[in-house]
Design brief:
Structural class: mainly beta
Strand content: over 45%
Radius of gyration: 13 Å
Helix content: 10-25%
Largest sheet: 7 strands, antiparallel
Shape: globular
Number of helices: 1
Distance between the termini: 29 Å
Length: about 100
């Protein structure tokens, strides 16, 4: 499984590469279980510009709904739950918000 040493730097570089038109804005980063990470990209007006799911086990990056479907929801107890479908696999569990608004500039 891939261990990302510096998550903010990794995310910023990935967003610059995958979304070059987004110069200012922020990203929300979630850890989905042990194998996946979700990155939601927002522009400077807080409009959602895209999202990526990273499979940390295979290093595969899915972008803007291609190859996966994801649903994130809050629970009554204040937890975050995810439902992920990737390549025929259905996963769900606790999502951990790593960075609620990481600036990309």
């Amino acid at each position: 499984m891939k261990k990302i040493e510096n998550i903010p730097e990794f995310v910023k570089e990935l967003v610059k590469k995958e979304y070059p038109d987004i110069q200012n804005g922020c990203v929300m980063v979630y850890q989905l279980g042990k194998e996946h990470m979700l990155i939601e990209v927002f522009d400077e007006n807080d409009n959602k510009a895209g999202e990526m799911v990273i499979n940390l086990k295979t290093d595969k990056i899915y972008k803007d709904g291609n190859g996966y479907s994801i649903k994130i929801e809050g629970t009554p107890k204040g937890m975050i739950r995810y439902f992920l479908e990737e390549g025929g696999r259905k996963l769900d569990g606790k999502a951990e918000s790593l960075y609620p608004c990481l600036p990309i500039s």
